[in-house]
Amino acid sequence: MAYKSFSMELAGRTLTVEVGRVAKQANGAALMHYGDTTVLCTATASEKPREGIDFFPLSVEFEEKMYSVGKIPGGFNKREGKASENAVLTARVIDRPMRPLFPKDYRNDCSLNNLVLSVDPECRPELVAMIGSAIATSISDIPFYGPCATTQLGMVDGEFIVNPSQEVWDGGELKLTVASTREKVIMIEAGAKELPEDKMIEAIYKCHDVNQTIIAFIDKMVEEVGKPKHEYTSCAIPEEMFDEIKKIVPPEEMEVAVFSDDKQTREENVRQVTEKLEEAFAENEEWLEILPEAVYQYQKKTVRKMILKDHKRPDGREITQIRPLSAEVDLIPRVHGSAMFTRGQTQICNITTLAPLSEKQKVDGLDPNVTEKRYMHHYNFPSYSVGETKPSRGPGRREIGHGALAEKALLPVLPSEEEFPYAIRSVSETFESNGSTSMASTCASCMSLMAAGVPIKKMVAGISCGLVTGETDDDFVLLTDIQGLEDFFGDMDFKVTGTTEGITAIQMDIKIHGLTRPIVEGAIARCREARLFIMDTCMKPAISEPRKEVGKYAPKIIQMQIDPQKIGDVVGQRGKTINALIERTDVKIDITDDGNVSICGEDAEKMAEAKRLIEVITTDFYEGQILEGEVINIKEFGAFIEFAPGKEGMVHISKIAKERIDHIEDVLTLGDHVKVICLGKDKMGRMSFSIKDVR
């Protein structure tokens, strides 16, 4: 391919795409420049379909190279290791809008790789990779019903900022990412500080308008350098097979099989249907091989027809009805906070752990503004939660994504470090899953935080809205609180979290080529109605407000302020003083550069003693000051008293007792605890102390 360069103005900066300069053996490649941010985006696909699979094998990578920000990676190896959480989340945001735009019967392995080469803080590499992936795929010979485009929106003081800088993105009131096709919105990802629904809709469609300018730019590139799309082997189920299946299992029988509010019952019914078909097709090996996918497609068509035409859901609910709800707190003993939230056959138990701020998570990434995390939300999805048997291999991309969504939902209501000087970890354990565990995690986490005594500002709940569409744009049904079957066979999983005031997070996944505005507006309105219902009828009866104090087993923290010039006195040479304090009082001590000291422990008396000792260390001696210390050394002329680690003074022999003494050992021994009074400075300018003058 001959070299070609394309440019456009995007949000006040120049976006330049170079084609045919590098990575020429990839099916499609675009060297992206936005400001000084440079990302190489490539799309490759195998020549033949992968055998034995019933899904599209698409993989998306976002490779964060530390050289792009002038850093050498931390750790022993000094090279990049596994993908960071940000890289995983970025890859998911690229995957979600693009996956539905590939042919449904395409089974060739496909890989979208985004290599971050340099980072300009004014131009986020994540956005460049999102646009670049769409460009690389659109100009390649890989079958793709694009193009699509992505825009990000921030907000400061109520004003929208298109494709904001990293600083605005991190500190603003809104983090919104929207992907679109020519006509419709295809993906939404948002974090917000209680943004009202109407303002969120305005923001979404501002992004959608900007996306149209990018799509026009991509169209021009495709026209000039795009490759003809290659032919591929279709893996669609033959229609004649469907005809035979319907003769053996009529649609009415399949309706009965899938119409149940119990997941296990439905799965057993489908298993029996499958066995019946296996017997019928015993002589047809070709059909037997694809029978599981055919049964899946038959279920899908049945469920969609029931919902769209009859407004009949598989579990018998109304389209706006939420499954049975229950909530409880304090079910796990000794942990700092716990809560369980159940919605139908979806059940999440969340456990909150509090710790000193020194236990914040360190972050080694490309964003210079984010070097640590004070609030961590982790989500686990064991196989038993869906009745399966497989070993745990640690969190995958789905688990990381679900945890990040719940974390994003709750961040806006957390107290500041000054208000609540703790690092906070919430862990959502999935006990049972049948649809939208991430939203159940949000509800359970909110209650768990309140039970732990975290003074969150408002209650947060979340719910998911589903969709089934017909042949025309205005033929659709929105479903409140989708269960797993409606998620698998439906067209959308629209998750929204928020307070009574507004939205804190959105994540939208779809399987079709975009949503019309009435669908977006309807889903957001439906989710608001549902989350308020969940709060009022389920969460508030379990726990209505945060507890006034942290739990019995949670660490307690005392805060105090010292002169920053005295930090060195508290720390001591090579940490000698602070380590002695910690050993003596059995507490943890954290000191910030501005002199804020956090004393963390479980014993109130020991914490008070640590505070007193720090006050002694950081306060200059003054005349009349009463102190208590330990005799640590005795000389002929006087005794040395340690008032705190690294802080000591001397009492002259004449100031020890009211009567004359010849030997200090007659009155004092090493280790004695004594009270002294500061007499001021002696003739040589040193502070003088007395035991006998203490009253």
Automatic annotation (TrEMBL):
Keywords: Coiled coil, Cytoplasm, Magnesium, Metal-binding, Nucleotidyltransferase, RNA-binding, Transferase. Pfam families: KH_1 (PF00013), PNPase (PF03726), RNase_PH (PF01138), RNase_PH_C (PF03725), S1 (PF00575). This is Polyribonucleotide nucleotidyltransferase. The gene is pnp. Residues 624-692 form the S1 motif domain. It comes from Butyribacter intestini. It catalyses: RNA(n+1) + phosphate = RNA(n) + a ribonucleoside 5'-diphosphate. It is an enzyme of class 2 (transferase). It is found in: Cytoplasm. Its cofactor is Mg(2+). Its EC number is 2.7.7.8.
